[in-house]
Write a structure and sequence with these properties.
Elements: H1 3-35, H2 42-69, H3 71-78, H4 87-112
């Protein structure tokens, strides 16, 4: 790929990772809560998972909406007008990060249950 496209991709990826930073806080709290519960108490584990899933989903969707509504403002503030070509990439990355943050949540839940 060209160096220009690589720069756009890097700028969009850096901004999209904010979704993972926000959801990782929820995941870390869920991990410690689930790992502290006895393995026999599956209802308590599932309740924590449901709450964490809902919070992760809502925060990820909120970030995706922000990336869809005002990507030009974010990119201009953080990178400058030269990187406005990254707007197209950022919109799709915001949506993709919803699924990646939910996968991160599920993997942490699975690891905490072991």
């Amino acid at each position: 790929f060209s160096s220009e496209f690589t720069g756009y991709w890097t700028a969009a990826l850096t901004l999209a990772r904010m979704t993972l930073f926000i959801s990782s806080g929820i995941v870390l709290v869920m991990f410690s809560e689930v790992s502290g519960i006895e393995k026999d108490d599956k209802n308590a584990r599932k309740l924590i998972l449901k709450k964490a899933f809902l919070m992760t989903l809502l925060s990820s969707i909120l970030m995706a909406i922000i990336f869809l509504v005002i990507p030009e403002v974010l990119i201009t503030l953080l990178y400058g007008k030269e990187f406005l070509g990254a707007v197209f990439i950022l919109k799709y990355m915001g949506i993709a990060m919803i699924f990646i943050s939910l996968i991160q949540l599920w993997m942490s839940y699975w690891l905490a249950g072991r």
